[in-house]
Amino acid sequence: MDQFTNITIDKKANVYFEGKVTSRTVLFEDGTRKTLGIMQPGEYEFAAELKEEMEIVAGHLDYKLSGQDWQTIEGNGVFYVPANESFQVKAYSVVDYCCSYISE
């Protein structure tokens, strides 16, 4: 999906790691929440409260889920983070991403 319709966007940015990772929250009519963001090159660790679908729209990164080996995405791809887990990211270029929060 390249476009979203019938949404509300929070104007205030979510800012992490001294501004090296930023996103905006997108809210859908059905209560679904996503964030659209940018990661600058660097190494980061995130914690997920809900299950997350991390869609990489553009960029080059390695990611590591808890208890797993490093994986690479170059260009675009998707990975899933279980609820209440953390994950690590090594961004080698600017990474454009969309994070979907999945309540099960």
Automatic annotation (TrEMBL):
Listed EC numbers: 2.4.2.1, 2.4.2.2
Signal peptide from the UniProt entry: none
Catalytic activity: guanosine + phosphate = alpha-D-ribose 1-phosphate + guanine; uridine + phosphate = alpha-D-ribose 1-phosphate + uracil; adenosine + phosphate = alpha-D-ribose 1-phosphate + adenine; xanthosine + phosphate = alpha-D-ribose 1-phosphate + xanthine
Any one cellular-component term (Gene Ontology): cytosol
GO function term, MF aspect, one: purine-nucleoside phosphorylase activity
EC category: transferase
Glycosyltransferase recorded as keyword: yes
InterPro entries (alphabetical): Ppnp (IPR009664), RmlC-like_jellyroll (IPR014710), RmlC_Cupin_sf (IPR011051)
TM region positions: none
Entry superkingdom: Bacteria
A Pfam family of this chain: Ppnp
Key words, A-Z: Glycosyltransferase, Transferase
Gene3D superfamilies assigned: Jelly Rolls (2.60.120.10)
Record function comment: Catalyzes the phosphorolysis of diverse nucleosides, yielding D-ribose 1-phosphate and the respective free bases. Can use uridine, adenosine, guanosine, cytidine, thymidine, inosine and xanthosine as substrates. Also catalyzes the reverse reactions.
HAMAP family reported for this sequence: Nucleos_phosphorylase_PpnP
UniProt family annotation: Belongs to the nucleoside phosphorylase PpnP family.
Name listed for the protein in its UniProt record: Pyrimidine/purine nucleoside phosphorylase
Source organism per UniProt: Metabacillus litoralis
